[in-house]
Design goal:
The protein is α/β, with parallel strands linked by helices. It is built from twelve helices and 15 strands. It has two domains: 9-58 and 385-432, Sandwich (Immunoglobulin-like), CATH 2.60.40.10; 64-379, TIM Barrel (Alpha-Beta Barrel). It has helices at residues 9-16, 19-32, 78-91, 101-104, 126-136, 162-180, 209-220, 242-252, 269-276, 283-294, 314-333, 370-382, and strands spanning 34-42, 53-58, 64-68, 94-98, 139-146, 186-191, 226-231, 259-266, 300-307, 337-342, 386-390, 396-402, 404-410, 415-421, 427-432. It has an eight-stranded parallel beta barrel, surrounded by six helices. The chain has a four-stranded antiparallel beta sheet with strand order 11-2-13-14, with no helix packed on it.
């Protein structure tokens, strides 16, 4: 069947505009992403100050809005590198840092940790990335500690002997934990262990290597580090249960799984065409999947997102922006979801074989697409709180805001203070002049 994506321009929107869907999304955001707060202003005499003007401005979000940062320092000019950094920092508060074994330790026992290591495209040295993230206040997510893929993860020198492989995986996790465990507080310990690769694409790991990876991570990382599991897009179909069973099996073995990662890759224009016709990933299906995984009472990380903009045509760009906005709003509304991570930020920044479509939020010249602006409007405008008002007779000002850090300013009184809004609680704070 030859698909024409825009023959029925309303078919996609109709799936998202039903009363059931819009109500669940709107109510979910209001209930799960916002909390009440009360600020009381006290004068120098210890009495409440009625009629005091104040402004409350959100500084950042508690929610993890991230992307992979694989192209950091990877462009041919300083101008392009600066444009990438600027665009990244204007949109995201989190970054996925690459720790793929194949490219991190090309030569056995000589990992490319340091900034002056030999450069490999899409695999900047971790020290270089960590330094950039710390200087710019980005939260970091390490990806990935254990992945049996020969194509993407397993180094050429790794032996086929399972016992020796176990020893080397354990050594790798220990070394990474010792070097980065104090600065990167969340990791994909296990990646795509149930992805269904062809046998020749998978390294013959030892029996129960999945649990061994979690056990090693628990030994070497501190208790405040979150240890995640991550799987492919196929598990957004509620009838596919293998990932659910895998998580339960590992939990039953005592593995300390901290969060569930769900990828969401629409890798081809044809898949986007089907989505535009309402044939894939309707909102009811997405909610049903999230509800299934929420039963583990673990946070859910929408860990890797690819959405193409077919041909970068005006219609394709509009579809990508519309889809991004709808998916982000649905994920943000669900109480179990704690973070959303776009995958490849610029066109041409995807892995070889996946870079033949236009799936970036930025064009190749690193100027923003409509999808970038759509997410910017959501994350930094619609989901940010800034309010002004006057205290009541008790010197109090009440508001409801999105979770995160805030700055309170009482003009004319040289009074300023920061506060944090958290889920499931009313925040009370007193400011004394």
């Amino acid at each position: 069947m030859q698909l024409t994506p825009f023959d029925h321009p309303n078919s996609y929107r109709n799936h998202w505009n039903t009363a059931e869907v819009t109500t669940r999304i709107q109510d979910g955001i209001e209930k799960h992403r916002k909390s009440d707060a009360r600020v009381q202003v006290i004068g120098a005499d210890g009495r409440p100050m009625p009629g005091a003007k104040l402004t409350v401005r959100q500084l950042n979000s508690s929610f993890h809005f991230g992307a992979n940062i694989f192209k950091l320092g990877g462009f041919k000019s300083e101008e392009l590198n600066h444009a990438y950094e600027t665009s990244f920092l204007k949109l995201f508060n989190g970054a996925t840092v690459p720790f793929y074994w194949k490219t991190l330790e090309v030569e056995q026992d000589h990992p490319r940790f340091t900034t002056n290591s030999v450069r490999i495209d899409r695999r900047p040295p971790p020290d270089f990335v960590v330094d950039f993230c710390q200087r710019n206040g980005l939260r970091m997510h390490g990806h990935t500690l254990s992945w049996a893929s020969k194509n993407w993860s397993i180094p050429e020198w790794l032996p086929l002997d399972p016992d020796e492989t176990d020893r080397l995986v354990d050594k790798r996790i220990r070394e990474i934990a010792e070097r980065y465990g104090n600065v990167i507080k969340r990791w994909d310990v296990l990646n795509e262990a149930d992805a269904g690769y062809a046998p020749e694409e998978v390294h013959p790991m030892s029996d129960n290597y999945e649990a061994k990876a979690f056990q090693a991570a628990s030994r070497y990382f501190a208790d405040d580090v979150r240890l995640d599991i991550n799987e492919t897009t196929g598990y957004w179909y509620p009838h596919k249960k293998a990932y659910l069973h895998q998580i339960q099996r590992l939990l039953d073995q005592g593995c300390d799984i901290g969060a569930v990662g769900l990828q969401f890759h629409i890798m081809t224009d044809e898949e986007m065409y089907r989505l535009s016709l309402g044939e894939r990933f309707a909102p009811q299906q997405l909610f049903a999947t999230l509800d299934q995984y929420a039963k583990f009472n673990l946070p859910i990380h929408i860990s890797e997102i690819t959405l193409t903009a077919p041909e970068n045509s005006p219609e394709g760009l509009a579809l990508q922006a519309d889809a991004a906005r709808n998916f982000y709003r649905l994920w943000f509304s669900h109480p179990a979801v704690e973070g959303i991570t776009w995958w490849n930020v610029p066109d041409g920044g995807a892995a070889p074989g996946e870079d033949t479509v236009y799936s970036g939020l930025l064009y190749e010249d690193l100027t923003p697409k409509p999808s970038y602006h759509a997410l910017q409007q959501l994350i930094h405008e619609e989901w940010r709180t800034e309010v002004s008002g006057i205290t009541d007779a008790k010197g109090c000002f009440e508001f409801r805001g999105f979770h995160g850090e805030y700055h309170i300013d009482v003009p004319g009184y040289a009074v300023q203070k920061n506060m944090h809004l958290s889920p499931d609680t009313t925040t009370d704070i007193t400011i004394t002049h």
